[in-house]
Amino acid sequence: MVPATPLKAGDALTVTGLTVAYGAIALQDVAVRFQRGLMTAIVGPNGAGKSTLLKAVLGMVPRVAGEVRVFGEPIAQALPRIAYVPQRASVDWDFPARALDVVLMGMYRQTGLLGRIGAAQKVQAMDCLTRVGMQDYAHRQIGALSGGQQQRVFLARALAQNAELYLLDEPFAGVDAATESAIIGVLKTLRDDGRTIIAVHHDLATVPAYFDRVLLLNRRVIAEGPVATTFRAGPLAETYGSALPTAIPA
Amino acid sequence: MWDALLLQSGYNAALVSIGAALLGIAAGAVGAFVNLRRRALVSDAMAHATLPGVGLAFLVMVAFGGEGRNLAGLLTGAALSAALGLWAVQRLSRTRLPEDTAIGAVLSTFYGAGVVILTVVQELNAGRPAGLEGFLLGSTAGMLRADAMLIAGGGATVLLALWLLRRPLTMVAFDAPHARMMGVSPTWTDAALMLLTLGVVLLGLRVVGLILIVALLITPATAARMWTNRAGMVAAIAGGIGAVCGYIGAATSAAVPDLPTGPVIVVLAFAAFVLSALFAPNRGMIARALSRLRLRRKLGAAHGI
Q1: B164 close to A (CB below 8 A)
Q2: Would an 8 Å CB–CB cutoff place B220 in contact with chain A?
C-alpha cells in the first residue's frame, strides 16, 4: 500500500510493537509512523491510551515491550529535538515564577547551567509569548493567569525549546474559542515551517479543519492515515465502539 | 544587650554573631528551595537524625584518646547518621508507607536513639561531655574562633554551590518532568538539594541546634515569598531575613546568660514572617484587605450606592 501523502525525508516518530500496562493493558502492540512536517491528531475514547502513548514515547511511563525512534534515534538522544506540552501541567500554581520565567525555562539547553540569561534571551522569550498572544502578561505570576492563558504560556515554553517534534496532550482542553484559534494558528505555522505536530485531540468536529492526518486509537491502532480517507464513520465507529452522533462522512 | 548588638561585648561574641548571620544567609537561601521542592519535613527528619551521630562520634574520639568535643569530628558523625536517616526515609517511602509516616518514624527513632546515646555518654563521665547538650537547642557559650571560621567557610561554600545550581533547582521544583526533558536530572538535583540542606544543618548544629534548625530553613523563606514572585528573589530575601535573625539572635543569646541561641533566632524569624504576612505589598493581608475594600467601593459607586 502506498501512503497517500508522500514522505518528506522519512518519519519523525516511529513506534513498533509498543505495549504498556498499568496493571491492565493500556496499549497493545502499537505500531505507527508519524511523518515529518505534518500535523497528526490522535483520536479515541477516554481510556484509549492516547496520553499514555505520548508518555510512553517520552519514557515517562515504562514500556512492557516495543521500540520508539525519533528521527531515527533512540529517545534519549532525540530528547533535545522534542517539546512536550502536557494536558494540564501538574505544577504548583503558587510557585514564584512569572510567565516570562516559565518560558525562559524552555531555553535551558541554550543558556546552560552557568549561562547568564541576557537581554537576547529575554527578547527571544518575549517573542515566544508574543506568538501565543501573551506578551502583555509576561510579568504576571503564573497562578494569576486563567486556565487558557496558562496553557498558552506552556505552549510558549515549548516554542522556546525550538524543537522539531511537538507532542501536545489535548492543547484545546478547557480553553476558550479565542485561545483555541490562537493555538491552532501557532501550530499550523510550526507545521508550515517543516516541524512535526502530534496532538491528542478530543473534538471530532474540528479534526478535518485542523489536522493533516489522524490516528484512531483504542488501546491498539484502529487506523492511521490522511484525514480525508481515514476519518470516516466506519473506522470511527470501530474506535468508539458505537455510532457517533456527529455528521461524519461514511 | 546593645553592646552585644553593636559588636562591643568582646571579640568572641562578635565572632559568634557574624557566624550566626552567615549561617542565616545560607539557611534562608537553601530553605527557599527546600520550601519550593516541599522538602521541609524531610529536612527536619534529617536534622533530628544527626543526634546519634554526634553521641557516637564523641565516644569514638574519646575511645581513641582524643578530644571528645572536636567540632569537625562531631560534625562528621552527625553527617553520617543524617545521611543514614535520609536513606531510611527514602527506603521506607518506597514501601507502602506514606512519606509523612516514614518521616515521623525516622525522626522520632533517630532522635530517641540519640538521647539514649547522649545519656550513656554523660554517665560514662569521660572526655568532658559537658556542652554536648548545646547541640539540641544551640549555644554560643564556649564557641571557639575555629568554630566560627568553620561556619563562615562552610556557609560560603554552600552559597556558592546554591548559586551555581539555582536554575536546575528552580526547574525541578517547578516542573520535574519538564526539567528531565531539558536534560536536567531531577534525581541528581534533588540529591544536591539534600546535600546543601545537610550542609546547613551541620553548620547550624552548634548555633541553632538540631531541634529548631528546620525553622531557620523554612520560616525566612516563607516570609520572603510574601514580597516577591520570583524564585531567585525569594532565596535572596530569605537569606537577608536569615542573616538579621541569626545576628540579633546570637548577640542576644550571648548577652543573656543561659539563653539558648536557637529558640531566640526562631522566634525572631517568626516575627519576620508575621510582619511580612501583614505588611507585604500585594500578597500581604493588609494590602489584600485594602484592595478588596477599594473594589467594593468601586462596585458601590457603579451601582449608585
Answers
A1: yes
A2: no
